[in-house]
Specification:
single chain, 440 residues, alpha/beta, five-stranded mixed β-sheet, globular, Metallo-depent_PP-like, Calcineurin-like_PHP
Length: 440
């Protein structure tokens, strides 16, 4: 097993350990968005401040367990952890977002409580985002003169109706109540268009604690782990701007980043040594992977990161089943990576190749496609909330010592998905998919 793969898995583990020890949740690469105007509340609460992390210590003895969309399915979730013999002192748990909503309210609250109390690292999902927005709206309403009293009265009426058995569908009850409550029209008009009060997302937002709200807000849109050459996102990450060919010089994977000219003066006027060849390659790969997030406009759009499923013929992004799956585009572009020289010399590229090194994306969101394993992407949403399966990607010491022996070519229809446990190529080594049934 190559040192690179050992380091890659170690970095994933140590990245999370660093986050735990510092008591914060960080977004490794900034998502650049425009803040709302002063008179327009920021309900989304996206993380915009850039964060950087130091190099990590070797923790290769720990396993990294990355779990797909849970959606409040508490029993399958805890069953999966049990099947994996999950031990917080020996394992690092990461989720791909959408940890709540769409299942039972109690299930969502149990999963959210567990994630918050145990400081589980993960990314924000599109359903998590809806809950964040509702809670931000509630906080905003409570800050307004008369807003707290309005909400208190509304919730009291709702709870009274529920206790009397008059509520079959909370959203329908709310619609009837709003139509009858003419004197509160000014308050109802403050609900953004398209939002459904007493929806699943609203009820979670109303019920969760301040600590749970802060945990949700702290979830980044993308985790970028440079030394593992891995991105973790809920919806996905595009490898290129779909408006241009992958070989267009403006595409991050079509150009070799430039390092500063050495020697470079440090603050104390000493000369910094020129990086060793291995260090130079690591820095160049970091710069190139970072530019995927910063230079491709779609990857700077939170809606895309949370919702993308495909790209249409007009190059627009869709969350529907239409278009080309973004993971197909990712694997197409990344499979053309042929490396590059680290000494600045131009390297002759064969036709159909790009001056880059491959990276892997681990994601959720696409339940309709099921467990979607390709060479350079791993889709972990296997439809647990639809009583299908809950899946996790496990990277452990055993996999570090067991290089993947099969053909590197994988596709989304691979028969492996029917098994409970199987191996896949991950970076330069092997990962393991563990899957359990979500049927009651």
């Amino acid at each position: 097993m190559s040192f690179r793969h050992v380091l890659a898995v170690s970095v994933i583990v140590c990245f999370v350990l660093y986050v735990f020890s510092s008591g914060i949740y960080v977004q490794v690469w900034p998502v650049l968005i425009t803040r709302p105007a002063p008179d327009k509340p920021d309900f989304a609460r996206y993380i915009t401040r850039p964060r950087t992390l130091e190099e990590f210590l070797d923790e290769s003895s720990k396993r990294a367990i990355i779990v797909g969309d849970i959606h409040g399915m508490q029993t399958p979730f805890f069953t999966l952890l049990s099947k994996l013999s999950y031990d917080p002192s020996k394992d690092v748990l990461i989720h791909t977002g959408d940890i709540i909503a769409k299942s039972s309210h109690d299930g969502s609250m149990t999963v959210l409580s567990y994630m918050t109390q145990n400081n589980i690292t993960g990314v924000r999902g599109n359903h998590d985002e809806k809950v964040i927005e509702w809670r931000s709206w509630l906080e905003w309403m409570r800050s307004k003169d008369g807003g707290k009293s309005f909400l208190y009265e509304f919730h009291a009426k709702w709870e009274e109706a529920e206790s009397s058995g008059a509520v079959d569908d909370p959203e329908v009850w709310a619609e009837h109540y709003i139509r009858k409550s003419k004197r509160d029209t000014k308050w109802w008009r403050k609900i953004p268009d398209g939002w459904k009060i007493l929806s699943d997302h609203y009820r979670i937002a109303h019920a969760m604690s301040d600590a749970e709200y802060q945990y949700m807000v702290s979830l980044p849109l993308v985790l970028h782990i440079p030394s593992a050459h891995t991105f973790i996102a809920h919806g996905g990450v595009l490898p290129s701007d779909p408006r241009y060919k992958p070989s267009n010089p403006r595409q991050p994977l079509a150009r070799v980043p430039k390092l500063p000219i050495y020697p470079v003066s440090s603050e104390d006027n000493e000369l910094k040594p020129k990086p060793k060849p291995d260090d130079t390659l690591a820095r160049l790969r970091f710069l190139q992977e970072s530019s995927i997030l910063s230079d491709i406009p779609h990857n700077n759009d939170p809606w895309v990161t949370l919702n993308v499923r495909g790209v249409l013929k007009d190059h627009s992004i869709t969350r529907s089943k239409d278009g080309v799956p973004w993971s197909d585009i990712w694997n197409h572009d990344v499979s053309m990576c042929a490396g590059f020289n680290t000494d600045g010399r131009k390297q002759k590229q064969s036709k159909g190749s790009l001056p880059c090194y491959p990276a892997t994306v681990v994601y959720g969101h696409a339940a309709a496609r099921g467990l979607d394993v390709k060479r350079w992407s791993v889709g972990l949403d296997s439809g647990c909330v639809y009583e299908k399966r809950l899946s996790a990607l496990v990277l452990d010491q055993k996999s570090q010592n067991s290089p993947f022996q099969a053909d590197d070519t994988l596709d989304g229809d691979i028969e492996f998905r029917k098994n409970k446990v199987f191996s896949i190529p991950f970076d330069q080594g092997t990962g393991h998919i563990v899957s359990i049934s979500c049927k009651p």
